Amino acid sequence: MKLVLATSNKGKVREIKALYKDFEVVPYSELIDEFEIVEDGKDFKENALIKARAVFKALDDEDVIVLADDSGISVDVLGGKPGIYSARYAGADATDKDNLYKLIEAIKTKGFDSSPAHYTAAIAIVTKDGEYSVHGWMYGEAMAKAVGDGGFGYDPMFIPLGYDKTLGELDDETKKSISHRAKALSLAKVILQTL
Ligand SMILES: O=c1nc[nH]c2c1ncn2[C@H]1C[C@H](O)[C@@H](COP(=O)(O)OP(=O)(O)OP(=O)(O)O)O1
Ligand SMILES: [Mg+2]
């Protein structure tokens, strides 16, 4: 089955390809020019649907199945921030590193070395016949420091529950077995098998 990914994030593409070995996974940028999608939904699910719908419409191909991921990190001592704003935490053109160091500073400014935190991933699927969405979560501790360069985004500051190393230090296989994205994609697989 061919699955078009409505994402511009190379880290997500890498992880989705590794988890969906039995699908033909194609980032939409290999089919059409990348375009800006305004993620103005009120939650992860709405934003994932907005991205999947936008790419489905732009592809203009009835038979395509489009999958989008909207995700982010929520830090307890910051009242759940940055949440759905994770990608734009340090500004509209922020890089992963800008966002990472801004979050570290925010936790320090609150007077903490770390805080309970969790990642959320909403996966949306859009086809000509319907729309579907599922979620996955990963709980752990957001550290006020960055260690390791594995994964992407906020991974160098995140220690999953039950581990003593950050996702920047842990290998890809470990993240694959516990991540918010892996959990949501495994639920999404059940839906995809019915299409
Ligand atoms: O496993 C993860 N490990 C580390 N960081 C993560 C992860 N999952 C989401 N994140 C962070 C990255 C980004 O700051 C935000 C996602 O924002 P989000 O809008 O969904 O993705 P994006 O703009 O990078 O790509 P796109 O919208 O084209 O899919 O959360
Ligand atoms: Mg985005």
Automatic annotation (TrEMBL):
<feature type="binding site">
    <location>
        <position position="175"/>
    </location>
    <ligand>
        <name>substrate</name>
    </ligand>
</feature>
<dbReference type="GO" id="GO:0005829">
    <property type="term" value="C:cytosol"/>
</dbReference>
<dbReference type="GO" id="GO:0046872">
    <property type="term" value="F:metal ion binding"/>
</dbReference>
<feature type="binding site">
    <location>
        <begin position="180"/>
        <end position="181"/>
    </location>
    <ligand>
        <name>substrate</name>
    </ligand>
</feature>
<comment type="similarity">
    <text>Belongs to the HAM1 NTPase family.</text>
</comment>
<feature type="binding site">
    <location>
        <begin position="7"/>
        <end position="12"/>
    </location>
    <ligand>
        <name>substrate</name>
    </ligand>
</feature>
<feature type="binding site">
    <location>
        <position position="70"/>
    </location>
    <ligand>
        <name>Mg(2+)</name>
    </ligand>
</feature>
<dbReference type="InterPro" id="IPR029001">
    <property type="entry name" value="ITPase-like_fam"/>
</dbReference>
<dbReference type="GO" id="GO:0036220">
    <property type="term" value="F:ITP diphosphatase activity"/>
</dbReference>
<keyword id="KW-0378">Hydrolase</keyword>
<keyword id="KW-0546">Nucleotide metabolism</keyword>
<comment type="subunit">
    <text>Homodimer.</text>
</comment>
<feature type="binding site">
    <location>
        <begin position="152"/>
        <end position="155"/>
    </location>
    <ligand>
        <name>substrate</name>
    </ligand>
</feature>
<feature type="binding site">
    <location>
        <position position="71"/>
    </location>
    <ligand>
        <name>substrate</name>
    </ligand>
</feature>
<dbReference type="GO" id="GO:0009117">
    <property type="term" value="P:nucleotide metabolic process"/>
</dbReference>
<protein>
    <recommendedName>
        <fullName>dITP/XTP pyrophosphatase</fullName>
        <ecNumber>3.6.1.66</ecNumber>
    </recommendedName>
</protein>
<dbReference type="GO" id="GO:0000166">
    <property type="term" value="F:nucleotide binding"/>
</dbReference>
<keyword id="KW-0460">Magnesium</keyword>
<dbReference type="GO" id="GO:0009146">
    <property type="term" value="P:purine nucleoside triphosphate catabolic process"/>
</dbReference>
<dbReference type="GO" id="GO:0017111">
    <property type="term" value="F:ribonucleoside triphosphate phosphatase activity"/>
</dbReference>
<dbReference type="Pfam" id="PF01725">
    <property type="entry name" value="Ham1p_like"/>
</dbReference>
<keyword id="KW-0479">Metal-binding</keyword>
<dbReference type="InterPro" id="IPR002637">
    <property type="entry name" value="RdgB/HAM1"/>
</dbReference>
<feature type="active site" description="Proton acceptor">
    <location>
        <position position="70"/>
    </location>
</feature>
<dbReference type="GO" id="GO:0036222">
    <property type="term" value="F:XTP diphosphatase activity"/>
</dbReference>
<dbReference type="InterPro" id="IPR020922">
    <property type="entry name" value="dITP/XTP_pyrophosphatase"/>
</dbReference>
<comment type="function">
    <text>Pyrophosphatase that catalyzes the hydrolysis of nucleoside triphosphates to their monophosphate derivatives, with a high preference for the non-canonical purine nucleotides XTP (xanthosine triphosphate), dITP (deoxyinosine triphosphate) and ITP. Seems to function as a house-cleaning enzyme that removes non-canonical purine nucleotides from the nucleotide pool, thus preventing their incorporation into DNA/RNA and avoiding chromosomal lesions.</text>
</comment>
<keyword id="KW-0547">Nucleotide-binding</keyword>
<dbReference type="GO" id="GO:0035870">
    <property type="term" value="F:dITP diphosphatase activity"/>
</dbReference>
